[in-house]
Amino acid sequence: MTHLRRSTSPEWWPVERKGLPWSIKPSPGPHPAYSSIPLAVLLRDVFHYARTLKEARLIIGKGYVKVDGKVRRDYKYPVGLMDVVELTPISEYYRIIPDPVNFLKPIRIDKAEASVKVCRIEDKTMVKEGRIQLNLHDGRNIIVEQDEGKKYETLGSVVINLEDGKLMDYYPMQPNQYVIAFSGINVGKHGTLVNWVKSFRKRDAIATVKAKEGEFKTILDYLLVIGKESPVVKVTE
Prior knowledge:
By secondary structure, this protein is mainly beta. It has helices at 39-46, 53-61, 146-149, and strands spanning 4-5, 22-23, 36-38, 65-67, 70-71, 78-80, 84-87, 92-99, 103-109, 116-126, 132-136, 141-144, 157-161, 167-171, 178-181, 190-197, 206-211, 214-219, 223-227. The strands form 5 sheets. A 5-stranded antiparallel sheet has the order 5-4-7-8-9, with no helix packed on it. It has a 5-stranded antiparallel sheet with strand order 12-11-10-13-14. α1 packs across α2 (53-61). The longest helix has 9 residues, at 53-61.
């Protein structure tokens, strides 16, 4: 199906439900449809830099919008967790972060931080010549040498330089790391990972996180490591 009814679009999208019957269906891309927002909806309904879809498509079509440093001309392009959106004519930069109210929302960041992105390692695969491919949450794949690849574990996070694509740092999923919940009822909460109760699958382990508001529990699969003692990227306004 190439269209999406407004009534069935994700609840956190800021679109009117009783207006026009159709909304924009995200294109296949780096993020699932339920956890991403089309570029045109972001420009029109979140940033309010366009009044209509036609205006949003014109802005995007002219190459005025970059996502993770690359010009995106597809108005249906899915923007999701930790993506960096740049509006080139006005030199504004935003990062998409988890939010307790809106599920995902953009926050303003400076130019220096716009070149950095935190990505979670979803899987590791062996490729030619014995090298290891890291499969990241945003669809990105990075190949490292076998000896170097041994230190990277699934659910850990890497810090990427968006300008050259190189790895800057690595944070394993382990106690005393700083994490943020990007799904579940605790979405948007962040703090220090205390520990977790082991289960058959590591992803399903029940984790305890110490936040400012107090401790909360969630599963490891809903957490993203964003630093050691503090976040390496901005996660609050």
